[in-house]
Amino acid sequence: MGGQREYVCGFKYCLHPGEKVPSDVAIKDGARYLHPDCKKEKQTRNQIFDIYYKFYKTTEDYHMVRKAIKGFCDTSSSEYVLYVLCQAIHQRVPFKGIFTLGWLVKNDMEIKRKYAAMLTKKATKSLNFENIETKKSEVIEINHEDRKKKSWTDVLFS
After folding, report:
1. Which conformational region is residue 39 in: left (phi greater than 0), alpha (psi within -120 to 50 degrees), or beta?
2. pLDDT band, residue 150 (cuts 50/70/90)
3. Rounded to the nearest 5°, which phi and psi values hold at 153?
4. Helices in the chain by DSSP H: which ranges?
5. Cβ distance 78 to 44 under 8 Å?
6. pLDDT beyond 60 at 2
């Protein structure tokens, strides 16, 4: 009877539809329990929303902005959408509405290149060489011949 409890994920757009959250990995968010990656996704989407309203003081409908951000995060990763928004703010890109962000997410190749470079740099920083095994059974001998420097006559007439 001391089995592990399982919860239904409380994130509306759960990344694991139909899967229950085991109690040992569940993260409590208010009265709900979430998968760890669903919690991160929810936080990232809320961060996009908050940053958008903070820097682009807009009168757009709250629900329309939420729905647009959901659409952007469904087509691209939420981390990428957040990165694009931060780059737009840094470059002082004027927004006429939330869909300008969507256009940048889909079409701005310079931002895509910078994001890919950032991910590559992040991945190489996390590499470690502690778990690499070497084979000592095969010893490779390298023979190096000392060659005398050839003159032009040796090259031409050999």
Report:
1. alpha
2. low
3. -70, -35
4. 36-55, 62-75, 78-90, 99-107, 109-125, 152-156
5. yes
6. no
